[in-house]
Amino acid sequence: MSQPVRCRWGAVTITGNYRENNEDNLHVDPEGRYFLVADGMGGQSAGEKASELAIELVADRLSNCLTDLANDNDVVAAIDEAVAHANAEIMALGELDPKYRNMGTTITFVINPGGRLFVGGVGDSRVYRLRDGALDQLTKDHSLTQALLDAGTITAEEAANHRYKNVLYRYLGTKEGGQGTDAQVVAAAASDRFLLCSDGVTDGIDDDEITRLLQSESDPQKAAETLVDAALNGGSRDNITCIVVDVESA
């Protein structure tokens, strides 16, 4: 497999104004081979534990296997297996320890094994791509609201503030969480900018504001900090986490 796409990145996670602890987690591989964001749920320390486990276990599996994969199907299979393994461990701990019962987490990722990127996730944490001034959401939320939108039952305007917006039908910590990550291959172009974020970002700012802010800062770390500050000031009531990844050469 060819060398990873050359990237720069910045990352921020904060508790925010409304939560007592930060149930979000993120991880950036030092070599830029993978980027992960997870948003835990379950109250008290349970959500924090779920997202921590997801990040730790998925990162460990990816670190050990990415360099040995020969083709796209192998990469997708490795990603799905890593996430399914984390899902099983989260479910097992939830069964063993009462304080972790019913805990769960989302996970979203950009994987960079060489030559192209793989994007996907489980839950409603998102990956966006900014290319030539246009913002595209590359992941689909596994929420009841998104399912209603897909079915044509509600409009996009109704979906924005729908009561089931944060109710997930797939996340890690349930049997559905191990049923694949919808990973897709994304051709990378120099000057592409990717955003991985928990819903704490999109709770405070809309896609137009995300586009504007991603274009306003050339440094990815400053861009990440600007997005988190804007979401906080925009009234986000959740933990807020994002990673901004810039493609330097592809």
From TrEMBL:
Residues 8-247 form the PPM-type phosphatase domain. InterPro entries: PP2C, PPM-type-like_dom_sf, PPM-type_phosphatase-like_dom. GO terms for molecular function: protein serine/threonine phosphatase activity. Its EC number is 3.1.3.16. The keyword Hydrolase applies. Keywords: Hydrolase. This is Serine/threonine phosphatase stp. It comes from Maioricimonas rarisocia. The gene is stp_2.
